Amino acid sequence: MTSKKHRIAPALAFLFFFAAFFVWAEVPHDKPGPAVDRLMFRAFDVDRASRDLEAGNMDLYLFSLKTAAAERLRGDKRFQLFEAPASTVSLILNPAPAPEGELNPFAITEVRLAMQYLVDREFIARDIYRGMALPMTSHVSPQDYDYLTIFDIEKESGIFYDPEYGREQISKAMREAGAELSGGLWSYQGQPIRIRLIGRVEDERRNIADLVRTELESAGFMVSVSYRTFAAAVFSVYSSDPRSFQWHIYTEGWGRSAPSRYDFGTVNSMNAPWLGNMPGWQEIGFWQYTHSELDKIGKQLFRGEFASLEERNQIYRRMTQLGLDESVRIWLATAVNSFPARTDVSSITRDLVSGVRSPWTLREAYIPGQSELTTGHLWVWTERTTWNPIGGLGDVYSVDIWRNLQDPPMWNHPFTGIPQPMRLTYDIDTAGPGGKLSVPTSAVTWNADTDTWDSVGSGVRATSKVVFDYSKYFQSKWHHGRPIDMSDVVYSIAQGYELAYDKDKARIEVALGVTSRPFLETFRGYRVVGDNRLEVYVDYWHFEENHIASYASSTGLSMPWEILAAMDDLVFNQRRGAYSDTASSRFNVPWISLVMDRDARLVERTLRTFAKDRVVPEGIFSMGNRTLTDVGKALARYDAAMGWFKEKGHLVISNGPFFLERYDPPAQYAELRAYREPSYPYKPGDWNFGTPPTIEILKTTAERITAGRTANIEVSVNGPGRLGLKYLLIDPATRTVVEDGAARSFGGRDSFLITLQGRVTGDLFPGLYQLVLVAYSDALAVVSERIIDLDIE
User: Which structural domain range is residue 759 located in?
Assistant: First the structure.
């Protein structure tokens, strides 16, 4: 097959394409770095947040207000309210089998399925969230672009609030399992069955927990509810062996980081065990939820093992259907988060999914005439907040600060959901889904047994090749003043292979290794070209070629190699720390957090030992015929890192527009300072995307339809780019789809016609039918849904 080669320009190309959508705001200055000199994070209780904002204690709040508080601020000219579908809510059920003589109801698939009918999603969205939420049936939010792919599956699933049916199904399954119902309560072998429900208390999930408890009690279960905050709840659920039954059901909440036009991560994370987010968490010694088909096709989707958009969509649909069939997660709602800010806060980017919580906002935001900004959050630090880039940074409270300290190589565009370059450029050369490119014999891969970069040899072939140019990194420095260079790139890549394939390391950090191997297996070779470029050969293809670059970009360049090396030594040689929470618990060592004095001091001592012994990590920096660093450069880095710790009291060192000046957990306070290094490549205005355009269905011309006659329904859609419209005609009595298709455009780009042929309407009984309309655009990663009633007579 003939290969295709494309030059993907820097982010400027995307800016030209979306110029019509930008807010070209005045910038406060032209210095490198962010708009403000000082960015402070403080914790404010969500129940008082609006009052604190009114009192001038903060300028912007990054945790969603409760609906009542948001309604009170709406229309107040002193404030602006940014709304986004930035979080989702689900129930996770513990499907582990109970010990001999006991019964776990959620180990029974039919009971889990019955739970789908016990939760009133409409009540949750309408009453608990007071209209600021959208009901969900699967992991796909009804505004996500992939809703186009699966919305017929959801509509035909028959899942809706029907507690009587749910209780009937539970009763049938429980009796078949040997349980007995006596006095309205289920028991097994003479012992009552008690369900442990963990409910979060910070937001509306407390009310959801109460609702679920009531429904479970009505189904005959004794329910023990434990209301917990973030740290305690997460530790009990995600750090425990499901067989310990510290929980049976938990009210999950998920922050959403960026729009994705073609999802591959969420569908895997929320359904397929291999990625480590299903009960058992891929931790050694834990009971594991398993599903071979979900793992098989999930890896296919993740690794681009499809030949077309249509085949990709088939895989996605199958995974969604299997997720519903298994019902380990019960999806409830997409919460429309409300983020308030003072009216005079300027240059805010509104990401379609995360709203103001994207990487773009705080590097651009400022108040005219002021040089600092105070950002509020629910917490700055919790007992589960852990700052290490390998197995930490897993909560929104750390991540929302971290995103302002680091420049990732790529990030999804806030409107299109397509990966775009952020601090690199790249060339893509692909042979397509059925072809192969030759990998040069000078390319290498990391050998975790010998700790060397080995030549791939002859005859090796790969689907795609991406050449990354890191010049925008390498022209500048890490926050501690040392130059960023290719040694940072290759150490990060080799570290990934070590975690996955070094047998001793993989026995310590089990989940990190197990979940990364399927990804690393697709990489065929690496080759350094010149001073700034790296060739990556990979067996991966995607019809949207920016996804090829995103997949092949296997390093995040988050921290300098000497910090990573010192942590590796601390975890694997000294055995005095751990990257992950589960390894920390298993070996009774600290879960490394570089903002905590105890942990940072351990890393600093390791750096001091490296400097004393003139250590350069063996093998990693000898790549082909090149040596990427030497003892002198290594010693300079160790000295800079130790100096940073002495000055700042932490070891969070990165490369973004801000650096971490101070982190004070007891005070719930973090202070960031502008990184004004002259060689930093960006300045205010470079990443201000502004407010996205919207898409909506404006009107329809549906009228009464006579059975047996052809009916034409006109639909008007407003939105940017090339527009489209899909539809389903549903019989609400049987919840079956009787007709589906794509509306055809007529009379202009925003007008569509749906034609229901007489042969279709002739088979319909008189009555009301539902016409589900979903509008979409090639310029946006969201869709718009509208349901109208059709009267068939």
Answer: 696-792
